Amino acid sequence: MNALKLMHVARGYTVIVGAMDALTGLALVVAPAVTLGLMGASAPGAEAMEYVRFIGAFVAAVGASYLWIAAGRAPAAFRAGLWVTLFFRLGAGGFALTAVLRGVFDAGWLIVGATDLGCVAVQAWFLAKGVGREN
After folding, report:
1. E strands of the chain, at which residues?
2. Which of 41, 47, 54, 72 has the most CB atoms around its CB within 10 Å?
């Protein structure tokens, strides 16, 4: 795959993942219990629901970050955006997976870990292939 085609595919990926995160985050802010239920994860007690909303705001911001890098024209900024969001996803995915394995989160949270760590793999592949690298 040539560099131009790879960049086109990577931009499409960032739009899809950005929209997914932005919408999921907003849904967690507006209707956290319903959103968690749709994800297959159990909702915490009422006292923790504001924390879920806070996490939703963060997820929406990460989604907006993907949309921002997708809209940009500077290849180096696109590459930097992939690196930054890769680290956020690694942290969130690793935490979710570890929490499920420790029995702190129910198995419904595996979708969060799998999605985040899957995105880490995709972004690492894009970066290894040189997306956004100035030659």
Report:
1. none
2. 41
Q: How far apart are the first and last CA of the chain?
A: 16
The residue written with tokens 């915490």 in the block is 44
Local confidence pLDDT in tens for the 135 residues of the chain: 788 899 999 999 999 999 999 999 999 999 999 999 999 898 888 889 999 999 999 999 999 999 999 998 899 999 999 999 999 999 999 999 999 999 999 999 999 999 999 999 999 999 999 999 875
pTM of this prediction? 0.91
Task: State how far the alpha carbon of 30 is from the alpha carbons of 36, 56, 60, 107, in Å.
Answer: 12, 9, 12, 23
Backbone angles phi, psi at 73, to 5 degrees: -110, -15
